[in-house]
Amino acid sequence: MKALLALLPPLLLLSVPPCSHQATGIRGDALEKSCLQLPLDCDDIYAQGYQADGVYLIYPSGPSVPVPVFCDMTTEGGRWTVFQKRFNGSVSFFRGWNDYKLGFGRADGEYWLGKAGARRAGAHLTASQGSTEQLPAPPGLQNIHLLTLKQKYELRVDLEDFENNTAYAKYADFSISPNAVSAEEDGYTLYVAGFEDGGAGDSLSYHSGQKFSTFDRDQDLFVQNCAALSSGAFWFRSCHFANLNGFYLGGSHLSYANGINWAQWKGFYYSLKRTEMKIRRA
């Protein structure tokens, strides 16, 4: 198994080949095991003995396509595979279709699940494993689809404002285009159900059944392009109650509904400080 484990400071990424003992220097709660099955998600990582928050490699597309992902191993029992993370505005999320399909950012920073973190992380891998620079491009939205196709997942959305208040929303059922022959042709349609309130209110059920939209691929139900109007990319309807990929506007803003908005908690004129979208097996 190969795993990337975040040790801060500084960030130290270690990778381990299949059927060998773990490399020295991994944290004490990472057990020495051999011939482990390549992990599909952070549930598998956790089951293999890695129970510290950090960056690991998962293999939703098969053994030849490792994908770096941040695993939240502490929130509500851990095992969360984080596919969207924002906390400081260092990465622009106002991007086109290909970026969201392929992924961008880094798993140890702000990111949308996909290839970019894998390629950049290559420089930190141990010399014996070589660089991941030449790895095939694992699609971001496609990876989320593949995960939810193979297992049943719940979704948790963690939110924080600039006054250090936190809240979350949970959904017992989460999937992306579960019945589609081609998920991309289906628009990576969102399905969520079974809302549980953690103080944030339900801003996502409105989006269930909607295709993913970007400024260069308008798939919403509104007469105008919701992604362009909202300065983001999301499963827009007409247009949104959640805009977690909007502009990082740093709290209260005068512009309408184009920040990192979760309307049922902070309305359309407040851009959140931190958001994480994460899934684990139900």
Tell me the structural class. Answer: alpha+beta
Instruction: Please state the overall shape, judged from the principal axes of the Cα atoms.
Output: globular
Largest sheet: 9 strands, antiparallel
Distance between the termini: 24 Å
- Give the fraction of residues assigned to helices: 10-25%
Count the beta strands: 13
Gyration radius, to the nearest Å? 18 Å
- Mean pLDDT level: 83
Q: Low-confidence spans: pLDDT under 50, at least 5 residues?
A: 1-35, 116-138
SSE topology string:
HEEEHEEHHEEEHEEEHEE
What percentage of amino acids are in beta strands? 15-25%
Count of runs of 4 or more consecutive helical residues: 6
Describe this structure in words.
This protein is of the alpha+beta class. 13% of the residues lie in helices and 23% in strands. The strands form three sheets. Strands 1, 2, 3, 4, 5, 6, 7, 8 and 13 form a nine-stranded antiparallel β-sheet that branches. It is globular, with a radius of gyration of 18 Å. The N terminus is likely disordered.
Core attributes:
single chain, 282 residues, alpha+beta, two-stranded antiparallel ribbon, globular
Give me a quick take on this structure.
This protein is α+β, with helices and mostly antiparallel strands and 282 residues long. The chain is 13% helix and 23% strand.
